[in-house]
Request: fold
Amino acid sequence: MKHKKLLITFLSVAVVAVGCKPSVEKTAAENREAAAQQFDKVKTETKEAAQAMKDYAFAQKAEFVATMEKQLADLNRDLDQLAAKIEKSSDAAKAEAKPKLQALREQAAKLNKKLDEARNATESTWDDVKAGFKKGYAELKDGFNQARQWVSDKIAP
Reply:
């Protein structure tokens, strides 16, 4: 998206520069007026392009939410499988693993709330909500991977 903004800015400057070249048959006043009109046109087009890019990102909200729902469901299913392995382990391993598993379940519950925020996000809040969800998902996934590693180290498969 930054590349698009950079391209739009570059094209805007190029259009203004081309529009500012003095013509032999035009007076200075006509040149200023033509440049001002050209600048206004480019400014309007740039705003429209920036808004279109923002709309496009917001327009993908439904796709983003659906993908995240699936990933979160998969992660919850994996947590259930991990819990089943823990239940089959020794009492000492269970005692050590249950708080870790509970913390992951709490993270998943918080992430479900963030997913609800994403569903209800407005265009103005979309970028912040999406970034918050992605961060929370990454943290949950890291925690899950650490727990899975712990289970595989402590509990035989």
User: Anything to note?
Assistant: The chain has a mean pLDDT of 77.
